Automatic annotation (TrEMBL):
Protein name from the UniProt record: Inner membrane ABC transporter permease protein YcjO
InterPro entries: MetI-like (IPR000515), MetI-like_sf (IPR035906), UgpAE/MalFG_permease (IPR050809)
Biased composition (Low complexity): 17-27
Highest taxon above the source species: Bacteria
UniProt membrane topology term: Multi-pass membrane protein
CDD domains recorded: TM_PBP2 (cd06261)
TM spans (from-to): 47-66, 112-133, 145-166, 198-223, 244-266, 304-326
Family listed: Belongs to the binding-protein-dependent transport system permease family.
Major location (coarse): membrane
Annotated segments matching region Disordered: 1-35
Key words of the record: Cell membrane, Membrane, Transmembrane, Transmembrane helix, Transport
Localization in the cell: Cell membrane
Domain (ABC transmembrane type-1) ranges: 108-325
């Protein structure tokens, strides 16, 4: 810096501003390779962070699914399991499935009809219970919500055996009550042999186990609706039914969409409740659904290729429902 006395009339601040900036002492260091890959602007950063989870999903889900598809293209039985050999036959298993009238007259009607009945009853009952809980005080709402969640917490196996005992032909609660009033003869009545009564019991079982999820989910949505909307509608003379369809249903449309699609996915792949009931494990072919039919073909008859093809068919149906579910979620987010 020049001497202050060497520039006439210059102040110390002016000389300081005129002084050139000192040269940088060192050049900036280059980023390391790992820092560049994990930088905030790196396109690889999200994939590197997701890599462990994707690897686990690939091992636990993707590879078994690929293996099932490969087996479905083979005539795969006990001999192939023992020898490890492949016996590819193309799409012959799928042709045999779609050409079998048993699929169209028994399995698909059972699967689709049962799922539709369960979904409708589960959503309706869950919504009714949610409306009831919404009208309770905080204390009783907590008590009743905890009570209905017991049905959700009970394992499917335990719940199925309870319903089997209730409808037991000889010693069940229903048979005993109806016998006492002279409506049936327990010695000649078996609720599990007829296709309609079998699935009626299974529907009661699934709805009883599934409605708490719908009730608590819809209740959470009901608690977000401003009370002023219903109060204004009441002042205008709207009935409770009218208020539900004009206020509650439109606001809770995303909630109803989610619980309906999730219930559809769960009810299409019901296996335990059907298989454990008398006749559902292969003794009564009239009550097979896709899940049970796939299991019986694979593990009871040793036709693993055929069973895998049925499992792939069920998976494709569930994937289609899942696509609808995801599209619904994305549409609701856009709104």
């Amino acid at each position: 810096m020049a001497d202050l006395h060497s520039v006439p009339g210059a102040s110390a601040d002016q000389l300081t501003r005129r002084a050139p900036a000192p040269a940088p002492s060192s050049t900036p260091r280059r980023r390391s390779g790992m820092h560049g890959l994990l930088g905030h602007k790196s396109p690889l950063r999200p994939w590197l962070l997701l890599a462990p989870a994707l690897a686990v999903l690939g091992i636990l889900l993707l590879w078994p699914l690929v293996r099932v598809v490969m087996i479905s293209l083979q005539d795969y039985g006990l001999r192939q399991i023992a020898s490890g050999e492949s016996n590819y036959i193309g799409f012959d298993n799928y042709a045999a499935i779609f050409g079998d009238s048993f699929l169209w007259t028994v399995v698909l009607p059972n699967t689709i009809g049962f799922a539709v009945a369960c979904v409708v009853l589960t959503v309706v009952l869950g919504t009714a219970v949610a409306l009831f809980l919404n009208n309770l005080g905080t204390f009783w709402r907590t008590i009743c919500s905890t009570a209905i969640m017991v049905a959700w917490a009970v394992p499917a196996i335990t719940g199925t055996y309870v319903w089997i005992w209730i409808f037991d032909p000889l010693n069940g609660l229903v048979s005993s009550v109806l016998d006492s009033v002279g409506l049936i003869d327990p010695a000649t009545t078996n609720w599990f042999t007829e296709r309609l009564s079998f699935y009626a019991i299974a529907t009661l079982n699934v709805v009883h186990h599934g409605f708490p999820f719908v009730a608590i989910t819809v209740l959470a949505g009901l608690l977000t609706i401003p009370k002023e909307l219903h109060e204004a509608a009441m002042m205008d003379g709207a009935t409770p039914w009218r208020r539900f369809w004009a206020i509650t249903a439109p606001i809770l449309r995303p909630v109803f969409a989610v619980v309906t699609i999730l219930s559809t996915i769960w009810d299409f792949k019901v296996f335990t409740q059907i298989y454990l009931m008398p006749g559902g494990n292969g003794g009564n072919k009239d009550v097979f659904n896709l899940g049970v039919w796939s299991y019986i073909q694979s593990f009871a008859q040793g036709k693993y290729g055929m069973g895998s093809a049925i499992a792939v068919l069920l998976t494709l149906i569930l994937l289609g429902i899942t696509v609808v579910y995801m599209r619904t979620l994305f549409k609701e987010e856009e709104l």
